[in-house]
Amino acid sequence: MNSIPVRAYENQVKEGLFARARNVFWLAPMAGITDVCFRQLMDEMNAGVLISELVSAKGLFYNSEKTRKMMRVHPNGKSITGIQLFGESAEDIIQASELVEATGADFVDINLGCPVKKVVKKGCGAALLRDPAYLETFLSTIKRGIRIPLTVKMRTGWNEEELTIHECVQAAYNSGCEWVAIHGRTRAQGYEGKADWNLIAEVKANAKIPVIGNGDIRNAGQARKRLAESKVDAVMIGRGALRNPGIFNECIGSKTETSCLDIIRRYQKSLQEFYDTRYALIMLRKFSAWLAFGNPGAAKFRKSMFECLTSAEVMEKVEAFFQNEKPLPFNDNEEFMMGGHG
Fold first, then answer.
1. Active site residue 114
2. Distance between CA 155 and CA 163 in Å, rounded?
3. Architecture of the domain defined by 7-251
4. What are phi and psi of 72, to 5 degrees?
5. Which of 37, 114, 251, 260 does the annotation list as catalytic?
């Protein structure tokens, strides 16, 4: 962090939004996962920063109740929370940011990483990486039009022939963003292959803005190693937090030990607070199945989850399956939910 003697950068780290981060181990945004309940759970588990799943600015304009629910922020959180948006125009993002601000969120995060066709064909997500000059104009317009801080999450480029990450990070800096989070894959890679942490480290060494590294962090040891070796300002953890929700406690050296049962009970309580009975059941079944992954009998347990018709049935099976077990370690050679959105 001391390799670039740029006062503006130093001020962002010491005085800006970054300085409000609880610690340097952050929850990465994941589609269909980092909703208000999962974020609340990760807040309780000491995640340094929380970011929502991807929210469509257009969806908010059509008064989509489902889209607005994706932006809910749990009360009395200890970690700062951002809402991640995507939109076809800067004006769309600016309008949506007013609704974000009304939720009590601390910042707006712009998605520049989503590889999904229906997103990029509209010029959103990773498509914005193809023209760094336009990206700077796009972000600068948004920055001037909103009242809360602006951050971005991006990939390394469109493909190996279009690695525009250096230019896009400079664009984010020029436009006044608080930080840049980098998922170390190109759009063409999707969620396959390995994240390029050497490139993330190279970008960090030349950046004038805080850089957050993301990609393939499966356990606390890896998180600390990536932080130290790449010299990034913080790291984001995605699927590793699904497999082991206590990963943030482990990253900061907390001695708190939490069983799968305790984690699921906490999550169920939050679901009951924020959702109707039907949707709470759907999310509880999914979450319990994630935690079971890798355990003996997990396949049979997952099948039984989706046969349950009530949350009470789910919890009965959960009690029998987990007893007092802790989440299993996430091995390097193991595929687990090869997805997300950036």
1. yes
2. 9
3. Alpha-Beta Barrel (3.20)
4. -60, 145
5. 114
